[in-house]
Amino acid sequence: MKVLVLNAGSSSQKTCLYYIPDDDRSEYVITELWSGSIDWSKQDGLADLKVESNGIVLEETANNEDRLTVIKQLFHYLCNGDTAVLETWQEIDFVGHRVVHGGREYQQPTWINEEVKSAIAQLASLAPSHNPVNLQGIELMEQLLPDTPQVAVFDTAFHSQIPPEAAIYPLPYRFYEDGIRRYGFHGISHQYCAEKVAKLLKQPLERLKLITCHLGNGASLAAIKNGHSIDTSMGFTPLEGLMMGTRCGSIDPGIVIHLLREQELTPEQVDKLLNKESGLKGISGISGDMRRITKEMEKGDDRAQLAFDTYVHHLVKGIASMFASLGRVDALVFTAGVGENSAVLRQAVCEKLEFLGIELDSKKNENSPRDEQIATIESSTRIFVIHTDEDSAIAQAVSQLAQGSSKTKPSS
């Protein structure tokens, strides 16, 4: 079967086409036929497109005034030009989507119908940078492939077994009953990385205690015990937790009250401030992109340095709290764009965690590690850099759902 995967983030769009055999081998055999990505974060008003297939890499810049137009431009290269791998769109058997917020109801990969789309839309207020663009992708594929079954794979699902004491907020209990609780996000990535580390360590995941650090434009931590998430930094929405590219992470909630009352900001203005204008971008005044921040640090920019130091401070505090949730940690894992590519960040974080027995091998850290262990022999905790692959994990989930069903599109 051919599975097209759409993975929309707050500042990016990744799309991959996979071939998976229709037999019992599919758990182990998956072939990437084509991949494309869009990055909206590097330049205001522009989108960077990249397509890879047939040994060819195509890159171009597009005006990003209309997000869907740019995505259609990316999809054009699936069936056209030197990167084409399909003659027609109808060769695609299934479409899988990463959907950030699934609420309490959706804890497994799910066939998409009108009811599911309605739920994704209703949950958009809890993931305003994600669920709307996830839904856009679903509706776009309905236009392009109206008869092709689509599957939603939810980022919140992996965290659904977090114990009540970690999930509940210290508010009146009725709010917990109404669904105001910690959901957690980046679950597809956290689960994939945990499984990858278990394979690299050649140990059953059920015996390991891990801390996974998904550090992209959005960032979150997960404490994983016996294969399950037992604590995580993001909460009711993806705004809680670590300082991020443009999101503030956890702040005193009284600040929000102050902004509303004393500075007379509207809820919409506060939402934009906390989600789009804070984090690295807010402190530095330069960018939410860690690559830009580190370049400006090297030039001696004080606010870029302050933004970096603040990011590290909050990340170290968060990791230490996950240690407390687990008691013992077998491996600390860095993943996603910042986690995988910023050696200076990993160095700064691990130096501040030396009191926990963590010791980084500086040479290994600087040598562009990928799916490698970078701790010293003396370190009490292994340290890994893992290339997260949410897309193949989504394709695998779609395949498993399809092979366990009649392979017909569910009714609306």
Automatic annotation (TrEMBL):
Compartments, as annotated in UniProt: Cytoplasm
Keyword Kinase: yes
Site (Transition state stabilizer): H186, R247
Cofactor or coenzyme needed: Mg(2+); Mn(2+)
UniProt-listed InterPro entries: Ac/propionate_kinase, Aliphatic_acid_kin_short-chain, Aliphatic_acid_kinase_CS, ATPase_NBD
Keywords for the protein's UniProt record, in alphabetical order: ATP-binding, Cytoplasm, Kinase, Magnesium, Metal-binding, Nucleotide-binding, Transferase
Domain of life of the organism encoding this protein: Bacteria
EC number(s) on file: 2.7.2.1
The UniProt record lists the keyword Magnesium: yes
Record protein name field: Acetate kinase
The organism's taxonomic lineage, starting at the top: Bacteria, Bacillati, Cyanobacteriota, Cyanophyceae, Oscillatoriophycideae
Underlying gene: ackA
